[in-house]
Design a protein that fits this description.
This protein has 310 residues and is an alpha/beta fold. The chain has one domain: Phosphatidylinositol (PI) phosphodiesterase (TIM Barrel, Alpha-Beta Barrel), CATH 3.20.20. The chain has helices at residues 20-29, 60-63, 81-85, 117-131, 144-149, 154-164, 181-189, 213-216, 219-225, 252-258, 280-291, 301-305, and strands spanning 4-7, 33-40, 46-48, 136-141, 175-178, 196-201, 231-234, 240-243, 246-249, 262-263, 295-298. Strands 1, 2, 3, 4 and 11 form a 5-stranded mixed beta sheet that branches. The protein has a 4-stranded parallel beta sheet with strand order 5-6-7-10, covered by helices on one side. The structure holds calcium ion.
Length: 310
């Protein structure tokens, strides 16, 4: 059976991540869900960007020299929406300005801009109306504890904006994701979020949240998670190990399924194939057919859709 295809930051293998152009392309390609990473501007607007920083995906250092913090990074939170709109969004770069994915959209070029969450939701709604499809949304609350310390609470604003666009029921095409387990519990219990929730699972070394990801990945941790969320979003390397005979399941998919959770691993990239696999098709087939994942985050929705699954 075909997995659910979540366009990771849009069709980001082809156009700069999180631009409306990348979202339109993913919609056109036939993705089931489009992902939005949500961060807050200085004037509390929700914008769609992967990081709390601007320097790896925009020309901020050229446009606003001297506006970096002491760590040398330019923070979305230090710019109001009008300033963010003045930036060009570029293909993702390393700190030295070289492209992270050299065969993608040409570095430091193109006329792409930051969009607000509202603009993106409106774009998806319009495309859905025009095409008769119902492509879903898959927003991620980025760094909720950090944002609260900065004086802005993303979760209630996000729920309000989803409601504005008519998303209201559990069966509506929305998955809401977060790395922070405390924020997901709050969404469920306190904010009475009607949508399906996804616990993203990272590594503790990433310092993405206070969450203890090692504890979440135990059998007891997974069972406990099932009280709050509907799915887990693990890193793909957390689902298999390499042995002499090839890839072997770690058991996380089975444990999650036994607890009633869906499994949507990230990130499947045709230009970044992990050890043990020779092609993108082989990688995707292993995860879908052998491991039985229910969906996957990919930068290349078209290449997953082109595959056939038994
Ligand atoms: Ca994300």
């Amino acid at each position: 059976m075909r997995p659910l295809i979540i366009a990771h930051r849009g069709a980001s293998g082809y156009l700069p991540e999180h631009t409306l152009a990348a979202k339109r392309l993913a919609h056109d390609m036939g993705a089931d869900y489009l992902e939005q990473d949500v961060v807050a501007s200085g004037d509390d607007e929700l914008v769609v960007l992967h990081d709390i920083f601007l320097d790896r995906v925009t020309d901020v250092a050229l446009r606003f020299p001297g506006r970096e913090r002491r760590d040398g990074r330019f923070y979305v939170r230090d710019f109001d929406l009008a300033e963010l709109r003045a930036l060009h969004v570029w293909e993702r770069m390393h700190a030295d300005g070289s492209p992270v994915y050299p065969h993608r959209y040409p570095a430091k070029s193109g006329d792409f801009h930051v969009s607000t969450l509202r603009e993106e939701l409106a774009c998806i709604q319009r495309l859905n109306e025009q095409t008769g499809r119902r492509v879903g949304v898959y927003p991620e609350i980025k760094r909720p504890a950090w944002h609260k310390a900065e004086g802005v609470d993303i979760a209630p604003r996000l729920l309000e904006q989803l409601a504005e666009f008519g998303y209201a029921e559990r069966d509506d095409p929305v998955f809401l994701q977060c790395f922070d387990d405390a924020e997901l519990r709050r969404l469920k219990q306190e904010l009475e979020c009607p949508f399906r929730l996804v616990q993203l699972i990272g590594e503790n070394s990433w310092l993405e949240a206070e969450t203890d990801f090692d504890a979440l990945r135990t059998v007891a941790g997974i069972k406990e998670l099932a009280r709050t969320v509907d799915a887990i979003g693990p890193h793909l390397l957390q689902l298999y190990q390499l042995s002499e005979t090839g890839a072997v399941a770690t058991g996380l998919v089975t444990e999650a399924h036994e607890a009633g959770l869906l499994v949507h691993p990230y990130t499947f990239r045709a230009d970044e194939i992990p050890a043990g696999f020779e092609s993108f098709a082989q990688l995707v087939r292993y995860f879908v057919v052998e491991l039985g994942v229910d969906g996957l985050f990919t930068d290349f929705p078209d290449q997953v859709l082109r595959l056939s699954f038994p």
